[in-house]
Design goal:
The complex is a heterodimer of chains A (262) and B (45).
Chain A: H1 8-23, H2 27-59, H3 73-100, H4 103-135, H5 143-164, H6 168-182, H7 185-195, H8 215-248, H9 252-261
Helix pairs in contact in A: 2-8, 3-4, 3-6, 3-8, 4-5, 4-6, 4-8, 5-6, 5-7
Chain B: H1 2-44
Classes of the chains: A mainly alpha (262), B mainly alpha (45).
Chain lengths: 262, 45
Amino acid sequence: MPDPFMNTTADSSILRRRINLFRYAAPSAFYAPAGIIARWCALIAIPFALLGLYLGFIVAPTDATQGEVYRILFIHVPAAWLSMLIYLVMAAWAALGLGLNTRLSGMMAAALAPTGAMFTLLALVTGSIWGKPTWGTWWVWDARLTSELILLFLYLGFIGLHNAIEDPRRADRAAGLLAIVGSVNLPVIYFSVRWWNTLHQGSSIRMDQAPSMAMTMVAAMLALLVACWLYAIAVSLLRLRCIIIEREGRSEWAQQVMRVAA
Amino acid sequence: MNDHLLFLSAAYALTVVCMAWEVVALRLRRRKALRQIRDTLEESS
């Protein structure tokens, strides 16, 4: 009777699949798929953005207490979520790069940082624009706002440190370490509204409770969140392709791609 | 009400400007990187 644990055909197919996945850890192998994924993400982001704007500006009613200005939240909340998510992904890639010494991981982390910084800046500025008519002030040194500002400084520190070191592999390692250490700020941002008494309101959408907003508002916010998410993936992958060309432009495969394209 | 619309427009305009700036900056960066490879290729041939 054959031993089911000794199924060599199945084992070899799993191994082959794993090897195929590892193949994409090489920048030269990931360059083309990155372009295809980026294009698809950008294309899918457009209908989600249009749907989110339609729901947010046409379907969702005017808020009884805040008036029209509450519609800023449809972009503020996705920007704030993405600022944290992108940092988490960036720190994970940096940790993978430090642990396994893979070139693509460092490039991924470097490609994510500017987009993460942009979303953090957007979250801070749109929050400030919403805060003026709602709270009566542009800024307060509240735990949520301050920790989000620290996140912006962490992104800028990552980008600055990366640019300051000439050798890209050393830059990846140094900036990666900063990204990993800085990730302690993420739970502080997320739980700040629970740990401290803040002016910033608590989460309107939580996993363990029904949302405290109207469903049309939640739908608009989620549609714009998906659009921003896809945009972030597309832009980061396009930046990754630039980084690959910049670092590996002198290699044989890159020159071959150029010869074919010419 | 007019103030609210001004704040709302400012927030969305800023978002569009930031995203457009990022995309344009990326295209310019890509063009520069490709030009460098092309120059290297021309030099070697």
